[in-house]
Structure formats: structure tokens, C-alpha cells
Design brief:
29% of the residues lie in helices and 25% in strands. By secondary structure, it is α+β, with helices and mostly antiparallel strands. It has one domain: Cytidine Deaminase, domain 2 (3-Layer(aba) Sandwich), CATH 3.40.140.10. A five-stranded mixed beta sheet has the order 2-1-3-4-5, with helices on both faces. Bound molecules: tetrahydrodeoxyuridine.
């Protein structure tokens, strides 16, 4: 799975965004070690706090299907579904990634439908609090 292919899955996942309040359409595509891709879209709620980000939808789908190890995630998003620069994962999603991934996990953030910025989870969440800090 190339980075560009994974970005394409994330861009396609934006179609299923349920975002009537923010009009920010976000898609994510998570590649597991098994080779399977799990997509997610943000799902908003009238009560606001139950809203779930695209990245967490992708992770929770994968975890609930039995996946344990992850290679990389692609994220694409934009106001009214127009990708106009990166849509960086929020802090809560970064912490969820850290629960299931190590520092070298790759995060691809779409800058346009075909170009992306590549960083590691450590870039996004330095000095992280992780499962290893609790389970000793
Ligand atoms: N959102 C995501 O889906 N992922 C992020 O990492 C940041 C924010 C969504 C949540 C909400 O539906 C909308 O973007 C505006 O915050």
C-alpha cells in the first residue's frame, strides 16, 4: 500500500462524513499490519460532545475487528469537503494513536487530494504519556 493509495482512501472516506454543525468533512484511512485498511469519517452530534473524529472511528473499527498492530494512517479534511492544506489530528486522536502505536507510527496529512505531509507520532506527540507508563 503506497502512501498515495492510503491518502486516496482517506479522501474517499470524507464522503461519509456526518458534519452538519461544523461542515468540516474529515476522512481517515488506517493501514494495519494484516494489510487491511480501515477507514473512518467524523461523526458529529447535536449535543456536540459525543462527536467522534475520523481517526478515532478508523482506530476503533480496526481494534474492534481484532487488529493489534498498525503501520500508518492517512488523514484528509477540509471545510465543506475542500482540502486546502493539512487537517492535523486533534490532541485526543494523538493520544488514542499512542495507546495502540509506537513513536515511529507514520501519519500522512493530505495537503491536497494527491500531496501530503509525512510525520511520525513522536513529531505530533512528543514526551507522550503511554501504556508503558501505567503497565509496569
Ligand atoms: N475532526 C476530526 O475528524 N479529526 C481531527 O483530528 C480534528 C477534528 C472533526 C471533528 C469535528 O467533526 C470537526 O472535525 C470540527 O472539529
Amino acid at each position: 500500500m503506497t502512501n498515495n493509495e492510503l491518502i486516496s482512501f482517506a479522501v474517499k472516506a470524507m464522503d461519509n462524513s456526518y458534519s452538519p454543525y461544523s461542515n468540516c468533512r474529515v476522512g481517515a484511512a488506517l493501514l494495519a499490519e494484516s494489510g487491511k485498511v480501515y477507514t473512518g469519517a467524523n461523526i458529529e452530534n447535536a449535543a456536540f460532545t459525543p462527536t467522534v473524529c475520523a481517526e478515532r472511528v478508523a482506530f476503533f473499527k480496526a481494534i474492534s475487528e481484532g487488529e493489534k498492530t498498525f503501520i500508518k494512517i492517512a488523514v484528509a479534511g477540509g471545510k465543506n469537503g475542500v482540502i486546502n492544506g493539512i487537517f492535523a489530528p486533534c490532541g485526543v486522536c494523538r493520544q488514542v494513536m499512542r495507546e495502540f502505536c509506537k513513536d515511529d507510527f507514520q501519519v500522512l496529512m493530505a495537503e491536497s487530494p494527491s500531496t501530503y505531509k509525512e510525520v511520525t507520532l513522536k513529531d505530533l506527540l512528543p514526551y507522550s504519556f503511554s501504556p508503558e507508563d501505567v503497565i509496569k
